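Internal ticket #5521
Category: modeling
Description: The requester needs a full-assembly model to guide mutagenesis choices. All entity lines are attached below as received. Residue total reported by intake: 1320.
Assigned to: D.W.
Attached entities:
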Amino acid sequence: MIGDIARSYEAQTERQQLDRLDEWVNHYRSFAAEGQCAAYIPALARANPSHLGICIAGPDGIAATSGDTNVSFTMQSISKVISFIAACLHRGVPYVLERVDLEPTGDPFNSMLRLELHKPGKPFNPMINAGAITVASLLPGESPQQKMDSFFSLLENMLGKRPAVNEEVFQSECKTGHRNRALAYYLSETGYLEVEVEHALEVYFKQCSIETNIQDIAMIGLILALDGCHPVSKKQLIPKDIARLTKSLMLTCGMYNASGKFAAFVGLPAKSGVSGGIMALVPPRSRPEALFRDGCGIGIYGPAIDSHGNSVAGVKLLQHIAQNWDLSIF
Amino acid sequence: MIGDIARSYEAQTERQQLDRLDEWVNHYRSFAAEGQCAAYIPALARANPSHLGICIAGPDGIAATSGDTNVSFTMQSISKVISFIAACLHRGVPYVLERVDLEPTGDPFNSMLRLELHKPGKPFNPMINAGAITVASLLPGESPQQKMDSFFSLLENMLGKRPAVNEEVFQSECKTGHRNRALAYYLSETGYLEVEVEHALEVYFKQCSIETNIQDIAMIGLILALDGCHPVSKKQLIPKDIARLTKSLMLTCGMYNASGKFAAFVGLPAKSGVSGGIMALVPPRSRPEALFRDGCGIGIYGPAIDSHGNSVAGVKLLQHIAQNWDLSIF
Amino acid sequence: MIGDIARSYEAQTERQQLDRLDEWVNHYRSFAAEGQCAAYIPALARANPSHLGICIAGPDGIAATSGDTNVSFTMQSISKVISFIAACLHRGVPYVLERVDLEPTGDPFNSMLRLELHKPGKPFNPMINAGAITVASLLPGESPQQKMDSFFSLLENMLGKRPAVNEEVFQSECKTGHRNRALAYYLSETGYLEVEVEHALEVYFKQCSIETNIQDIAMIGLILALDGCHPVSKKQLIPKDIARLTKSLMLTCGMYNASGKFAAFVGLPAKSGVSGGIMALVPPRSRPEALFRDGCGIGIYGPAIDSHGNSVAGVKLLQHIAQNWDLSIF
Amino acid sequence: MIGDIARSYEAQTERQQLDRLDEWVNHYRSFAAEGQCAAYIPALARANPSHLGICIAGPDGIAATSGDTNVSFTMQSISKVISFIAACLHRGVPYVLERVDLEPTGDPFNSMLRLELHKPGKPFNPMINAGAITVASLLPGESPQQKMDSFFSLLENMLGKRPAVNEEVFQSECKTGHRNRALAYYLSETGYLEVEVEHALEVYFKQCSIETNIQDIAMIGLILALDGCHPVSKKQLIPKDIARLTKSLMLTCGMYNASGKFAAFVGLPAKSGVSGGIMALVPPRSRPEALFRDGCGIGIYGPAIDSHGNSVAGVKLLQHIAQNWDLSIF
């Protein structure tokens, strides 16, 4: 009985807390003015910079949404998390880690410097472009289509549906991706690519061009928060060790070369993309008074990004939430 | 009643788990052969490479010790954590972060590259030497002695005693520290040092030369695990935000340029030193079946280090423990 | 009369000097063992490493040849000199120098480092691959074929014939040139390439694959020695200012990242290629007792190259000749 | 008789040419506005930026002077040429070249990058600060005073007098030279310095602070032009091989990271200093119609320097002279 009252009181407090989300979203939306939509391809440049939306998914379902919740956007670098997991699932962690390291770099996401500075040129981590292109080449299958199938298959297991590739974005990425081509040819020459450059790039550009939304990325985040277990089916989609590895990688390298500051002031594993998406997650933890003690996934969309490539309003909103609700893993 | 039985059962299981520590220490001790004691100064070179000791401190006191528990060693880079906290306490976080960033680099601890590559040469984080020397210059007080006082004062609050400086080590560091002098003069020229080069270095070399042991660093780790609160006096020695910031920094940058791999396979905030010490910690968390749910600090000593500067046996032991007891924060 | 005797005496001495060439060639041939033939494509790997040949062309014709004088080889990087001249002829020096600098780098020929280190990524000089690919894109004409025509046209003016492209080498370069592709895509992204990447590379790979021999490159060297004037037709094929610019560039950047040492110990403008060719030249100078006072061109072939990419025996032979005959420009 | 007339005609023409110097000096003086006096120490900052003076010394004495001919200034980096020669004289070329390379770098004069990028950190050439500090440590003698003695002794042989050290400049250099201290400590740690850091720096700062003038540096340039032979005493002060080596080094590395462009558009061995001095030279050469066929030394002073560290008006004046009088060595 007392338990019931306590739980009811808790639920009420939680509701009050969640209700503040709208206020926060409205407040942080204005910070988008400090950033700009990615402009290297038309589809991204056309985004509405003042959009800001958030979805929080807990083990029992969507816990809260606020702001612009119905905008779809392309995964961009958030897809690097999925392809890393898919490569580990199919090739095994040791095989993957022979071809890509797990160290943060402090360099911009498209940097080539380290490939030449550190012989033999092993990419430093799977969250920078060099590492992600290498990982794309490791996906199972001979053809780009087969590789995409293994990517989509993992995504389907998590989301219960197969998302579409945005063809316009994919074509634009192909056309403008010369820096990525430079990275890929370099990797090909040093032997890190397992397939032809154009095949690896097709996979990479396609995974970046997958349509998504904040509900989907909150769900993926939640599955990672739950160590790879689907909250509804309870199926272990990703082995715990791969889920843990992935979360550590998100924390140390997920927010481009602002990952250290994000870890310090937000304290959550997260991965951003230049389209303005952020996939974050809260692992279950023991703070008795805390919201989301059983873990949650968070999807955010705010297309105006900063010089690192992270959603300006999105990062500020997440920081506010994490500090107010004491979500940090530290 | 049932609660009592449960607790008693739990305690028994915990005991059984902790009893396995001796076995693990014995097993991993042999991996020291893959490393070597730091040889740049005689006092470190004289260490016994096959030493391996661990101490785990929980909120209720020392929970377990095993192996070579009575060897004293110098703090070396573990002191960087203390001086960063002391600087933040006295100068405020924003002041400190204007002078040192929080980004991991992927470079060796004594690298100068980035200072020149990234104008204006702000050190990338307080855990690499360039950042730590900058932080030493920020400690309150005019003279090196006053700066050391603020360092010692924090340490005394945490440990209830004032540790000694190993004079032989300090003199050796002074004599051989030309790479650190190079860093310090560079930082002085770019304006990041607040005091004269030799004063900053005196503080830095002295903090590195402080005698410590695994019990002490386990205790410091525990206080950080508890968000800055002393487990016995319950005093908040370090504000929660500084403690959290420090823990995130340890996770992203604490194990030199192997921090990413350590986060991936151990998953705990930790800081190592070239003398072979590792200070690690487990924040409280919610896994019901877990050991050390209320958090703990871990002190390890194993003087044979790898090419990154981390204790070979120490890292392997920690990894084994973290995986067996499910200690990862992710 | 006395003049005639003097001239006759001089001629005799010159003959005696030139006769020693055979002895020197035989001596230095053995140093090929310190190097290796380039192995990245089959055609180069098949070369006979103990080959060594030299041809010296003066204003009055071939002055001396020695060793393996009938081996044909591909131009490789020696072609960079020709394409730089052709680009300057057709686009004007200022236009070309807006797109490629004239500074030596100390880096290997295929390095990408500086493109990223020095924003906005202007190639440091036309003798490293990044610069040469940029220059190839500047040749007049829309299509690769038209660009090659302007290259060949200059070559025909100098040699009185149109050399052939070695199709096997060209195909191999195309197939294996991933590092060059990486450079080219990088340059394309930063805006330094005037044509599509594959078109620029086709020109670059083709110019590298042109068949040549020591007589031809001695002739080209001679024309440069004579400030662009053909020794027989007396036509000014290259304006003096472009010839001078080219010679300075050969001196500061022509021998890859050993150019400084070559300038110091040989003291002649020269350009080498990984096939083992060296094109060197002696500008007219005033040492009264000197051989080749009126200038000469020197062609050398010795396919075993050192780690920089220069013919081992060729460099040693040239150094011996330059020091014995006092040919240095300094 | 006809010879006399010819010679007289020639002398007249030469006179007419030299008379144009005043006009050119006046014209190029105005370009000083594009640069600024070095401001890192007061003595340099106080220089009059519109000063411009030139002295040309031929084998028969001063051939021409123009502009501000009586201003004295400190040698700064021009002294690097003298100390390199002194080190080679006393230690032998091979000994010196084991400790410093001869390759141009493309980096700013005070760069540390390459020391870390290229293990084991051998300085790339004696004209950048890292190389010059290393060379200073190689001068014969135990104490800084003895090392300076060997430096002064070479200078006395060339100039017939012992120049003074500007104490104010020396003290300022000592006080502000933190970047040089950083370089020196780095070099000390990698083993390239033969003496203590502060001793090497004392020598280096002192040699930089030596008072000189355009007459003196023209004379030094002339001696190098004459392959080390004093024009009056005919004594061989510097062996020919060391003189040649030095001249090649000036050409490839003497004008900081604008050496390539200077070689291309001026074409003369030269060394500049941040005080605004340029020491250039013309080796004897065979152009029959040329001025200074027997070689000359050129001293220039113009304290407003560009971003590379070279006198703006001085470089432009030299380029104009070299092109008008066809002085290029190429």
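Resolution: model delivered.
Comment from assignee: Residues 2-29 of chain C form the longest helix (28 residues).
Ticket closed.
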